[in-house]
Amino acid sequence: MEKVQEYIGKHRERFLEELLNLLRIPSVSADPAYKKDVLKTAKFVASALKKAGAENVEICETKGYPIIYGDKIVDKSLPTVLVYGHYDVQPPDPLELWESGPFEPVIKKTKNHPDGAIFARGACDDKGQFYMHVKAFEAMFKTKSLPCNIKFMIEGEEEVGSDNLGPFCKKNKKKLACDVVLISDTSIISNKVPSITTGLRGLSYVEVEVTGPNRDLHSGVYGGAVANPINILSQMIASLHDKRNRITIPGFYEDVEVVSKKERAEMNKAPFSLAAYKRELKVKDVHGEKSYTTLERTSIRPTLDVNGMWGGYTGEGAKTVLPSKAFAKISMRLVPNQDPDKITKLFSKHFKSIAPPGVKVVVKPHHGGEPAVTPTDSVEYQAAHQAMKKTFKKEPIPQRSGGSIPIVALFEKVLGVKTVLMGFGLDTDDIHSPNEHYGLFNYYKGIETIPYFFHYYSELKKK
C-alpha cells in the first residue's frame, strides 16, 4: 500500500486538474439543450478509464444517455467490486445566486473546508466522488497493487431517475456480475468525524397540474367569480400536512418501518449541534414532524415537500391576470417498507379527491425509487470501516441518510448483491443548490481511502 499512496502523492496536481476539466463540461441530463455536453462527458469518462488502465471500456447506448462500462479482471477466482457513479449533474439554476460560474470551477477556502473547496456544479454530486475511484484504480493499477477484480458502471441519467439503468442491468447481468457494489455519492458527518451510510430513503416524485378556466382571465373582470388555480393549488398543498406536520394522505404511514427506541437512541448519539445547524442555514428554528429529532426527521421518517410551483405571470412589472393553470413539483421521501408505486397512487387518488369542482387536476408521476438499508455486519461493510479508520484515524460511525439512491435496491434485486455507501462529501456542500462545492481534503482523502477498501476487502474474503 505504500507504493499506492506514494503514487497518489506524486500525482495529486494532475488528479485535480483532470477533475476540473471534467467539471467544465455542463452535463445537465434534465435539459435537452445540454445533450451534446452530456455525450461529451461520456466520452471523457470512457477516455479517463482507458488511461487509468481499464480494459473492455465501452460507451453503452441506451434509450437515453449512455452508460460507461470498463473493467480489469486480475483473476477470475478473486472477488469483484463493481464501482457505480454518475456523470450527469443537476441544472445550475438559479444562475444569479452563483458566486462564480457553475461550470467554471474555482477553488476557495470555506469554514468547513479550510484547505479549499472546488466550487462547480457536480463537484460533489457526483463527478468529484466517482472520479476518486478512477484515480484510486489508476494508482493501484500503475503500481501493480490491485488485489481483486474491478468493474465500472458510470451512468448519465441519475439526476433524472435512471430510467434506463434497470433494463441495462437486466440485459447485462453476466457482464456486471460482482460480489459487492461500491458507491461514493453520500456524505460523512464531518472531516473530523467519518461515517458510513447504512440506509437511504426511497422516493416518489410527481408533477401536478391544476386547470381552471380555458384561458388566462382579467383578474378585475373575473376575480372572485372563477376559481384561481394558483389559489386552489396552494390550499390543496397546504392541506397535505396537519398541525403536527404529519402527512394527511390516507394510508401514507401504513407500511412505515417502526424503528425501536434503542436504535433511535443510538442514532441520536451522532455528533450534532442544533444551534450550529440553525446557524449554518440562517433559520431561527427547525420544522418537521412532532415528537422526532432533526436527525430522525431526516433519516427514518417519510416526508412530502414542494420542490417548485408556478403559474400565471412571473415577469417584470405587473399583469393582473387570473391564470388558467397552476403547476407544482412534489417529492416524497420514503422509508423502509414503503413502496414508491403505492405511495404515488395514494397521492394521486387523494390529491384529485380534495380538488373543488371548479378545477381539473392531473397528476403526472416522474421517477421514484425504493428505500434501502445495508447491513453493518458484512465483510463488505467491515472493509469500508477499516479503510476509513485507517485514513481518518478514527472509527467511522454508521449513519442512515435522508437522501435517495434508488439504484441500491435495484442492484440487490437484479444483481443479487449488497452495496457499500462510502461517500466523502459533506451535507454543507450545497449539492443541488447554487455554489455546490467539494473539499480538496475530501477528494484526496477518498482517493487515499478507496485502495484500502480493496485491500481489506480482499483480505477479509480470504478468511
Attribute tags:
single chain, 463 residues, alpha/beta, Aminopeptidase, Alpha-Beta Plaits, six-stranded mixed sheet, 14 helices
Provide a count of the helices.
14
**Name of the top-level CATH class of the largest domain:** Alpha Beta
Shape descriptor reads globular
Low-confidence runs: none
Radius of gyration: 23 Å
CATH superfamily of the largest domain: Zn peptidases
The CATH topology of the largest domain is given as Aminopeptidase
Strand order in space, largest sheet: 1-2-6-3-7-18
Instruction: Compute the number of strand runs.
Output: 20
The percent of residues in helical segments reads: 25-40%
In total, the number of domains comes to: 2
What is the distance, rounded to the nearest whole angstrom, between the alpha carbons of the first and last residues?
A: 20 Å
Architecture of the largest domain, CATH level 2?
Answer: 3-Layer(aba) Sandwich
